[in-house]
Amino acid sequence: QVQLVESGGGLVQPGGSLRLSCAASGSIFSIGAMGWYRQAPGNQRELVATISSGGSTNYADSVKGRLTISRVNAKNTVSLQMNNLTPEDTAAYYCYAAIRRLGSLMLNDYWGQGTQVTVSS
């Protein structure tokens, strides 16, 4: 069994910062891409940022220059440093990882339970 557990959400004022973290655990052989998605009420889930196992990153245009994704392969963790937050960043943020389980030849998608980020004065 594999789990992704997120932490770090909360309430922050416009212009403030938050750091989200996600740790993968369980019967993991290897992890491919990891990333963060978000979903605001009434909207579809959208990509925020992804990072490959080699460190290549991809960002949504709306967050470039403000949010930074990073990972520590040895710890199976991925983080999202969020700076200069705006009310438009308010959403539930979900951690994602493509994981190959022990004894399996396939990569499967796994998701965390979500952590709420609210940007408001």
Low-pLDDT parts are none
The beta-strand count equals 11
- First and last CA, distance: 40 Å
Strand residue content: over 45%
Give the helices and strands as they follow along the chain.
EEEEEEEEEEE
Tell me about the largest β-sheet: 7 strands, mixed
Instruction: Please identify the structural class as seen in this structure.
Output: mainly beta
Mean pLDDT across all amino acids: 97
Shape: elongated
Tell me the number of helical segments per DSSP (H or I, 4 or more residues long).
0
Rg from C-alpha positions?
14 Å
Helix content: under 10%
Explain how this protein is built.
- By secondary structure, the protein is mainly beta.
- 0% of the residues lie in helices and 60% in strands.
- The chain has strands spanning 2-7, 10-12, 18-26, 28-39, 46-51, 57-59, 67-72, 77-82, 91-101, 107-111, 115-119.
- Strands 2, 4, 5, 6, 9, 10 and 11 form a seven-stranded mixed beta sheet that branches. A four-stranded antiparallel beta sheet has the order 1-3-8-7, with no helix packed on it.
- Strand 9 and strand 10 form a beta hairpin.
- The N and C termini lie far apart (40 Å).
- The model has no long low-confidence stretch (mean pLDDT 97).
Short description:
With 121 residues, this protein is mostly beta strands.
Keywords:
121 residues, mainly beta, seven-stranded mixed sheet, 0% helix, elongated
Reconstruct the topology from this structure.
Elements: E1 2-7, E2 10-12, E3 18-26, E4 28-39, E5 46-51, E6 57-59, E7 67-72, E8 77-82, E9 91-101, E10 107-111, E11 115-119
Parallel strand pairs: 2-11
Antiparallel strand pairs: 1-3, 3-8, 4-5, 4-9, 5-6, 7-8, 9-10, 9-11
